[in-house]
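Thread: Newbie trying to understand structure tokens

Hi all, I'm a second-year student working on a class project, and my supervisor (Dr. K.) asked me to get a predicted structure for one chain before our next meeting. I've only ever worked with sequences, so writing a 3D structure as a token string is new to me. If someone could post the tokens and maybe explain what I'm looking at, I'd be very grateful. Here's the chain:
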Amino acid sequence: MRIKVTSDTFFKLSPRMSSELTAAEKVLVRNGTEFEVEFYTEVAGDHLKLELANVTLGNPPTFSWYVYKPDVQVTGSSVKLTVTSDTLFKLKPTLSSELSDNEKVFIKNGTEFELQSFLPAAGNHVRIAIANAFLGPDNRNTWYAYNPDIKIDGQKIDLRVVSDTLFKAKPLMSRQLTSQEKVFIPNKTVFELSSYAQMEGSHVRVALSGAFLGPDNRNTWYAFGPDIQIEGTEKDNKPNDSNPAANQTPANPRDRGQGLRFPGFSGVYYTNDPVIAGGNFTWGEATHGGTRIPVSADVVYGMIRVAKAMEEIRKIVGNRPIRINSWYRDPATNARVGGASMSRHLVGDATDFVVSGYHPYDIFDKLDRWWGSRGGLASSTVFTHIDVRGFRARWDYGF
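---
Reply by user tm_fold:
Sure, no problem. This is what the structure looks like when written as tokens:
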């Protein structure tokens, strides 16, 4: 990622007013200057702490500086927004007629922006964080845009630290590691990721993009799941799956359907039986009509975990019918339907679903706070995804 200076400013060795610092504690940086940065951290006093990637400033030279946040922009995003029809960016995802003039700004057809991030929002809106511009009387970079009026190209993955934490060379308790094998990362630090893996215990293996930390300059670390959140997804995550067992009701209520056997379980399970006793979602929906048999007991337990979440969701939406588009996917099927390389569908604890009478973005908005840090939540314009990964992840598929 890059930082562009948008007003003559000082890079400082502490987040204080420049008048309080000596000449040796600050460096004047001119408007228009750009730097590659490994990561940044939001700190008190409306400052960012920057870790420059390939240049040092000051005497003695250092990579670490503080800068007043309004004087810089985070640029170099691979995600572009193009306005396709004259529109209004809004401070709330509602009708523009319900907003004051200070709560909306006119954006002309053809205008382009770089985005830091974008997420689904109510009323077929997208919540956008603009990387290279501040708009409106209050110079805001976060707005709601009406989805039919914009086009977004590209995806990226950001890791946001939500509690002071340690990145570790191994997925172990920090006391089991040497000082060479861990590095302190403060709350509100943001990294761009090349990729990340499934959880190992309570840790997530992350590959940082352009950031090298610790005495060995590592870019691959283990992060404690509750201390981080992931926002965004890989660019080729565009699943297109359907489920022959979705909403099927047996002609004979006593028909339990096809018998299934699962690894690690001695009993027989039937496609028309609910995953959760007395529940609404069946083993047929979980196994794609009995055609996708779990490869391990862990996958079965994953199916059960997300089935419990789906039963809760059904209550939240007033017991409306829910159609399951996709549940468990083996690796070959996941690749064929366009799923992410590390999709939670591979471990059974994810569903893609549609709620009758609701737009998927409204479902995202309704479930976001409720689901919290229990797992992933995402929407496209045609389905919503939920998974039980054990840490917070959010994204918009972009289609």
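A couple of things are worth pointing out once you decode it. The chain has four domains: 2-75, 80-153, 157-232, 259-396. The helical segments are 283-286, 297-316, 331-336, 360-371. Feel free to ask follow-ups in this thread.
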